[in-house]
Every structure is written in C-alpha cells, then in structure tokens.
Amino acid sequence: MSAVRPVMCVVGARPNFMKMAPLLRALAAHAPPLPALLLHTGQHYDADMNDRLFADLGLPRPDINLDVGSASHAVQTAEVMRRFEPALDAHRPACVVVVGDVNSTLACTLVAVKKGIPVAHVEAGLRSGDRTMPEEINRIVTDQLADRLYTTERSAAQHLQREGIAPERVCFAGNVMIDSLRLHRGQAPAAAATLVAHGIDAALVGQPQGYGVVTLHRPSNVDNAAALRALLGVLAEVAQRLPLVFAMHPRTRAKIEQFGLSGLIDPARIATLPPQGYLEMLGLMAGARLVLTDSGGLQEETTALGVPCLTLRSNTERPITVEQGTNTLVGADRELILRSVDDILAGRGKTGRLPELWDGHAAERIAADLWHWLATRAHGPG
C-alpha cells in the first residue's frame, strides 16, 4: 500500500488515552509504518491532568484539538460532530479509529460513516445489558456503524453476532488497556509517595491489613442523595476494617458537598485525593489489598494486577473480569460488600487469571490487521 493517507485516531476522555497510546506506538512501529493523526475532541479537559496523562503515557501532543468541553450528552455529541466534520474534510484520512464508549466515540463515528470514511472501533462488542447507561447506547450504535471491530474478549463477538454484525467485520485482538499497564507498571510510584505528595501521612498505607482504593463517579451512584449517603456509609464501615484511599472524581466531590455528606468521611480512616495521574493511580492499585469502584477500566486493570475488585454496580460490560479475573459485582448491597471485604481480608478473595490475549501485544495485532484491511480495501481482494 503506497502513499497511504493517515489514519485519524480519536480520543475524547481520560480512558481513551490509555487505549490509544499503545496503538499509536504500534502504528509507527509497523513495517511499513502507518501514518497517524491524533485528534483530541476535548470532551473532558483538565489542563493539569491532561498534560500529566500525555507525559505519563508518552503520547504525542494532539495534531488537532476540538476543545469541545463539557455539556449534556446531546449538546456534547452534537458539538463534537459539528467541529469534527471540518477536520475530517481537511485531512480526508484513510480511516477513523475510535476507542471505547464515550460520546466522542459515537459522534466521530457518525460523521465519518456519513461521509464515506471507514471506521475502526477498538474495544468493540462490550455490553452491560443496561440501556440506562449512556455508554451502552454509544457502544451499540458505534458497533453497528463501524466497518472494523476489534474485541478484547471472546464474548464480545457473541454480542455482535446477536446484533446482526457479520463475523468478517470482527477481529479478536486483545486488550490495549493492558498494553499500557504492562509497559508502565515499573514506572508507577508507590502508594506512600503519592500520599506524601498530597500531605497525607504515609503510615495510612503501611498498616498490616493493607489498604483499599476507592473510585466512584457513576451518576446512578453519586447523583442521588440517598444512594450516595448509603454508599458512603458502607465505605465508612469498610474503613474500620482497613484504611481507604479515595481518589475522588470532581463530580463526586461536588455531590458530597451539595448533599451535605462530608461528615461521613473520616479523614483518619479515609484519605481523599483529587483525581490522580495514570502512573499514580496504577501504583495505588498495584499495592492495594482491594479496590472498590464503579469504573469499567479499573475492573480490567485490577484483573491484570491480580488485585481483588469489588464493583459497585449490578452489571458489567466486562464479564471476563468476573468469570476469569478478580472482579466481583456487589452493587450497593451493604451486606454483600462487607462480606466480600471480610472474605478478601481473610485470604478468600479472587486471585483470578489473566484473560486470553491480555499479553501486552494487542496494539501490535490491531496495527497489523488494520494495515492489511486498509490495503485490501484499497486494492481489492487478491
């Protein structure tokens, strides 16, 4: 394939960065290289966090930044589409590569497909079965429209087949998130160093029973005062068993203050931190006895790290983390959460195993397949 046009790689929010970084490296390392443009929609943007993530992951600065910013789902999706179209017209890439399930993923897919530009979706076929989650809608629609679908686990192909997607559009490549984790694990600072950097006594994470890590940001958990109060109450009980490090999402912090729930967090047992850089968060998780979260990505990362994870949701789009990994779905069930914590502290937590193709080479497989797929499209079969 000669004089190939570049691939346009889209990121919009923090989880996308961890998935795109290894793919950009793999495209550049492919023989011959596949040129790429990095487009950042700016769907989520915090200057300090953005700069730190790019540095941590070795990501190049974006070639294009749409600076969309936060808004409602409808407004944000529409604004990404409005700003993405001129960028697409200006560069006419060979294809658009989208990752994950954020609004930017869906918006850029819609624009590209309507303009006749093929789309490759990395992390395709994941399903929670819960259509009240905006991400689930983004996943379903993106997969229907995308031309090439790269999956992280074999169950994803079954979801796609049930939705009428031809098997020849699907490629089981493995998990690019784990590529990033394996590459950067050795660079992650110890939990004690992260706490000290925020003025917190490192002794909190040096106790014999270890420590737990908490993240919480799903609207179903934090936007309702009663639900958030109940979860913070359970976390307070967990903190009596082992200290917790709570990396607090801005949305969660705002809701805690709005609902007057700050008194439920005992600073002697629960250290609250602002959102952490990729390496800091990786170090916190790697050293933890357990993780309590409603994040999709952390379910995968804890499985790769062999750290028990209690997911504060009733469903997951990543079932392999439950079936083979270290993840347990506990929802907001107080008794189940406390019983699961006690099991972990007693040495009865899940140890799990590394799922198939979570080997640090997913991006290389995607780059090789993408090259072949684009060459076939350009020249026809044979």
Number of helices: 16
- 3D shape: globular
Radius of gyration: 21 Å
What sequence of helices (H) and strands (E) makes up the elements? EHEHEHEHEHEHEHHEHHEHEHEHEHEHH
The figure for the number of domains is: 2
CATH class of the largest domain: Alpha Beta
Main β-sheet, spatial strand arrangement? 3-2-1-4-5-6-7
Helix proportion: 40-55%
CATH superfamily of the largest domain: Glycogen Phosphorylase B
Structural summary, described in words:
- This protein is of the alpha/beta class and 382 residues long.
- It has 2 domains: 7-174 and 358-379, Rossmann fold (3-Layer(aba) Sandwich); 189-345, 3-Layer(aba) Sandwich (Rossmann fold), CATH 3.40.50.
- Helices cover 46% and strands 13% of the residues.
- It has 16 helices and 13 strands.
- The protein has helices spanning 14-29, 47-57, 73-91, 103-114, 134-145, 155-162, 176-184, 191-197, 219-222, 225-239, 250-258, 278-286, 296-305, 320-323, 334-345, 362-379; strands spanning 7-11, 36-40, 64-65, 95-99, 119-124, 148-151, 170-172, 212-214, 244-247, 270-273, 290-293, 309-311, 327-329.
- Strands 3-2-1-4-5-6-7 form a 7-stranded parallel sheet, with helices on both faces.
- Helix 1 crosses helix 7 (176-184) and helix 3 (73-91) packs across helix 4 (103-114).
- The mean pLDDT is 95.
